[in-house]
Design goal:
The longest helix has 25 residues. It is built from 10 helices and 14 strands. The protein has a 5-stranded mixed sheet with strand order 5-4-3-6-9. It has a 5-stranded mixed sheet with strand order 12-11-10-13-14, with helices on both faces. A two-stranded antiparallel sheet has the order 1-2. The mean pLDDT is about 90.
């Protein structure tokens, strides 16, 4: 309390408490801040959050798709410093930075272990480099998985211990939140849903496999199918809006895409038995045109015990900002000893 880390709550707790002391103690929301940074193909987004999960500031910058890792890191650090300066905060108040990257991250080494053609981060040692540049504790995770972490803490997955988040965009990724914690797998590659084969005799995928889900329900495949229905000059946003409003041309495309995704999710329901499936990414903007056939395919294909899983849209949007929120949530949820980390920050501040 002397250091300002803990305060007494003004309100009395509800219900009876054992003992004589009735004051409640709370962590001071502004005792420290956490940052989320999410790198996408075309930019980087930052979010500053207090310890009560209240947003302090949020901003980003656009980058050319061909921009290299060093320039992308520099851009992210620049946005972070600008947000801290605007909020009147010293970098020493930052508890940690959760950072989203495209591609699977090797959890033991912090290296982007696999990256498809056109991705700038392939084999980059991102954790070591970002810790060196920032001078702060860093957690690095796949951007889609951070979208799932954000939905689990603040969005459509609130209050659910076993959650499956599916991001349908240019790639198809997922986040598995099992017993309240993000499941990464042996090396951090869990959740690569887009490269599960749904047709072993299908076309060759850039990953080397055949018939991957992304070739059937990823953004490029769905966009090509939509333009066959709406015309080659139609823009994606317009087609998604029209589809969500009930246009039968768009519904035909999303019935096919939703069905193939739903069949695969039925297998995951049999395997993992999630309480809820949250669907995000750009293609989720088609709304029930996508979600209804997904639910139907799950009900037809999954075991009776698990087929009634909830399938709901994401609440926090998609893309860079959602991933940055997830980065902040990751720091709040996975800092090994939050009390010790806060005490250390406070001790440094009192010494200074």
């Amino acid at each position: 309390m002397a250091r300002g880390l803990v305060i007494e709550a003004d309100d009395e707790p509800a219900g009876d408490l054992d003992g004589r002391v009735r004051n409640r103690l709370l962590i001071t929301p502004h005792a420290a801040v956490v940052a989320g940074m999410n790198h996408t193909v075309d930019g980087v987004w930052l979010n500053l959050t207090d310890l009560a999960t209240g947003e302090i500031a949020s901003s980003g910058t656009v980058l050319a798709p061909g921009t290299g890792p060093a320039e992308r890191i520099e851009a992210g650090v620049s946005v972070l410093q600008r947000l801290l300066d605007d909020a009147g905060l010293d970098r020493g108040r930052v508890l940690g930075v959760g950072i989203g990257m495209p591609g699977p991250i090797h959890h033991g080494t912090g290296v982007v272990s696999v990256s498809l053609p056109g991705q700038p981060w392939s084999h980059a040692h991102v954790t070591a480099e970002l810790e060196r540049v920032l001078g702060l504790p860093v957690m690095v995770e796949n951007g889609t998985r951070l979208e799932g972490v954000a939905e689990a803490r603040w969005g459509a997955g609130r209050g659910v211990a076993n959650l499956l988040y599916v991001g349908l965009s240019s790639g198809i990724g997922s986040a598995l939140v099992l017993d309240g914690r993000l499941h990464r797998g042996a090396v951090g590659a869990a959740g690569e849903l887009g490269h599960v084969s749904v047709d072993i005799d299908g076309p060759v995928c850039p990953c080397g496999n055949r018939g991957c889900l992304v070739l059937h329900a990823g953004l490029p495949a769905v966009l090509a199918a939509l333009r066959r229905e709406f015309g080659t000059g139609a823009e994606l946003d317009e087609m998604l809006v029209r589809t969500a409003a009930g246009d039968p041309a768009g519904e035909r495309v999303f019935t096919r895409a939703g069905t193939v995704v739903g069949r695969l999710l039925a297998n995951l329901c049999n395997l993992l038995n999630p309480e809820r499936i949250v669907v995000g990414g750009e293609l989720s903007l088609a709304g029930e045109a996508l979600l209804a056939p997904m639910r139907s395919a799950i009900r037809r294909t999954a075991l009776s015990l698990v087929r009634d899983v909830e399938v709901v849209p994401a609440e926090l949007g998609h893309g860079a900002r959602s991933g940055a929120l997830g980065g902040a949530a990751l720091v709040l949820g996975e800092t090994p000893d939050l009390a010790a980390a806060l005490n250390n920050l406070s001790a440094k501040g009192s010494t200074a």
